[in-house]
Amino acid sequence: MSSSFGTLFRVTTFGESHGLGIGAVVDGCPPKITLDETDIQPQLDRRRPAQSKLTTPRNEADRVSIFSGVENGKTLGTPISLIIKNKDQRVEDYRQIFSVPRPSHADYTYQIKYGIRARSGGGRSSARETAGRVAAGAIAEKFLYEDYGIEIVAWVSAVYSIVAPALDITQITRRDVDKSMVRCPDPLAAEKMEDFILEARNAGDSVGGIITCVCRNLPAGLGEPVFDKAEAILAQAMLSIPATKGFEIGSGFAGSRMRGSEHNDVFLKKGDRLGTKTNYSGGVQGGITNGEPIIFRVAFKPPATISLPQKTADFDGNDVVLEAGGRHDPCVVPRAVPIVESMAALVIADFALRQKMREEVL
Fold it and tell me: Which residues of 290-325 are buried (b: 16+ CB within 10 A; e: fewer)?
């Protein structure tokens, strides 16, 4: 099982959804970075369950503890281990449905691959695993901001067919994003999204959505040619998040409906550097950052667990009607915002260290 991500800034997550806890080990974080739990906790608070009526009622505080790699508030350059204990496990919610692979969950595929699986929740396939990613990503963000001034902000730009208007990506802040429960900075769109999610929840159903993310103040030159292109690794990172089904950067699929004369990002002087007039490339050209903001979007499917009865089959092929218990989100995108930000930070931190190593060699 692949539970590690990154080359030089490398993260390994561990733990199951209803086990004793979740965690991560960060290897490769540079030394002498100021760090304690208060630098990590805010992002975990944004990801944690039971934060609003739009999310699962599972009540986890998600308090992080740093077990190694930090002394007197400074990173040592050694592996940083992070622990988040589970407090509100309910294994009994899954006992009656263990013999039935839940539709669109990983129950069937994990069982086929390993011949065994966690007996409650989704185990490693559960979105609970992402708590470790968010904790690790907060460390990457601290490094990126202190050393490069890089800012990463994500927000909900669509829920089902409700689409928020375009925003000024140079100005949007996390404070703007967090003004609404659904984490959409446009008040009118946010109200419609919240009402629609609650309507789906009351009907026992679920809905999907889209998260947009901008990464600002990146230097030009990050990313590796050919197979480790910046957009390729970003896509891998985002599509590794549970419930993701699509990724596009810059103009994305809309670019296929444009002419080259419309789409080309012509160069011009911006202060002391060369920049582009438009940003259809999304901040990346030839797999390498060009100094413009990276802008991308991630599509999330409707959560697979719903309260409506579903006609399906058990592992023996017998027809059954599944009535799922447990607790679940009617829409994952409000809580997925910090997950997207964290995965972006991990990608950029790794590229930054790889570029720094190249420059030192040269």
Answer: bbbbbbbbbbbbbbbbbbeeeeeeeeeeeeeebebe
